Amino acid sequence: FPGLADVSISQDIPVEGEITVPVGSHSPDEDYSTLDEPVKDTIMRDLKAVGKKFVHVMYPRKSSALLRDWDLWGPLVLCVSLALMLQGGSADSKDDGGPQFAEVFVIIWFGAVVITLNSKLLGGTISFFQSLCVLGYCVLPLTVAMLVCRLVLLAGAGTVSFIIRLIVVGAMFGWSTLASTAFLADSQPPNRKALVVYPIFLFYFVISWMILTFTPQ
Amino acid sequence: SGAPAAEWGGFEDNMQGGGSAVIDMENMDDTSGSSFEDMGEMHQRMKEEEEEEAEGEAGAGEEEDGEFLGMKGLRGQLGRQVADQMWQVGKRQASRAFSLYANIDILRPYFDVEPVQVRARLLESMIPVKMINFPQKIAGELYGPLMLVFTLVAILLHGMKTSDTIIREGTLMGTAIGTCFGYWLGVSSFMYFLAYLCNAQITMVQMLSLLGYGLFGHCITLFVTYNIHFHSLFYIFWLVVGGLSTLRMVAVLVSRTVGHTQRLILCGTLAALHMLFLLYLHFAYHKVVEGILDTLEGPNMPPFQRVARDIPVVSNPVLNTTAKAIALAL
């Protein structure tokens, strides 16, 4: 070991014992424990987290689980499925399939970003990604409404089906707005809740209106 | 630890001679005493060693560390310190840049409103003031105007969809957002520029706020007339509602300007742009199906009625399908 000759160790300090860096020795252990697990475990853990959040949205209680461990998988899945289902529903011409998907994507994400910025500017205590997470997950009732609408439209497109669709979409829109308000309005000063709720209302209104006016060709 | 040898530039905070490309390792905290060339050799050995450690068990790795107290322990520690310092410096630089450019706190004072205030300002925007000899107060607030622009976008989307406007290059959403935001920001900037030329006492935020609240009249008019397709109803709304909000904006501007010519220029431009925008929104994005209207209104139609965008010839099959689609949507 030629390098040993260059090491200057003072004679006064006895060098003995184990030189281990506490931080270094613990973190490789943790890394190994989640790196070495089978891929199925990782996926199941993430899926369970997403599923738990879906349940929180469908039964909105005041729990902080949705806020604490935010993730954007759920919103992405919901957004993509909603955009896919809304495709191909405009007047005529083949090039309307493309913009439809991009429109829905842009509306959802751009709208969520604007609402988040607005609630932060109004003095909210919630963080950027937490708010995006909540708004994205609360699109779930509207995705369910879209599914129901598509099924109803398979049966026919008359006045009765329109009334059914109107009722279903209206109910889901109310559910979405209430669910997201339950999570987001708490982080605002109490007298400004209306200022935060209105953009959320507008956001889900635009999405539900897109769902309601969907007519397949 | 990654490859610190490639990024010595990150250690500029620790160097005595700033800007030199060679790091003098003797000035580092760990007092290893080795030079730059030895550092490279040590780093190479560290990398090989960490690869060995990564393959083995964690327990065995610790035992190996414990065996040789001298170089191996120091190497591992040095590597971790190097990586740690790289991370700290990088994080500090990134957070500095972020706090400089992404600071939304500069907009915070403009969003400091209560719901009652917003409601009051919405109603006030339709009431023209009488005192024009005394400068009227304009609240520099951006929440109300921003929400009104988004509401206008939503209403415009509704109008475009129900009239089956087909937009070939671009999307419905893009056009709606572009039109509304373009009007709000563009006309505000233009009016601010004119106000600067005419020596009017108004700031940019106040202009944005004034014009934004003036869109409340537009929202009401379009919301009603996109759903009830009477042309005469639209004209009544255009004159009354549009006129009221224009009068209010004009009165406020006049109260802040001195001189007859300047007042005339400012008010004429604002009134023209505001009223014409409402006209444009109604006729450009709201196709009037000729068959339906003929039965309702007879010969009372405006001369420049646009039937649809980008459809050069309206043939019968298209009319039939659009009529069906409108009936479905309603």
Unreliable spans of chain B are: 1-7, 9-19, 27-34, 57-68, 288-295
Number of strands of chain A: 0
In what range is the share of β-strand residues of chain A?
under 5%
Alpha carbon gap, first and last residue of chain A: 79 Å
Termini Cα gap of chain B: 64 Å
β-strand amount of chain B: under 5%
Number of strands of chain B: 0
- SSE order of chain A: HHHHHHHHH
The DSSP helix count of chain A reads: 9
Largest sheet of chain A: none
Please tell me what the overall shape of chain A is: elongated
The average pLDDT of chain B is 75
Query: Fraction of residues of chain A in helices?
Result: 55-70%
Determine the number of helices of chain B (DSSP H or I, runs of at least 4 residues). Answer: 11
Uncertain segments of chain A: 24-29
**Largest beta-sheet details of chain B:** none
Determine the most extensive contact between two protein chains. Answer: A-B, 51 and 53 residues
Structure class of chain A = mainly alpha
Query: Could you say which structural class the secondary elements and strand pairing of chain B correspond to?
Result: mainly alpha
Transmembrane segments (chain A): 70-89, 101-122, 134-156, 162-184, 196-215
InterPro entries (chain A): Yip1/4-like (IPR045231), Yip1_dom (IPR006977)
GO biological process, one term (chain A): endoplasmic reticulum to Golgi vesicle-mediated transport
Family (chain A): Belongs to the YIP1 family.
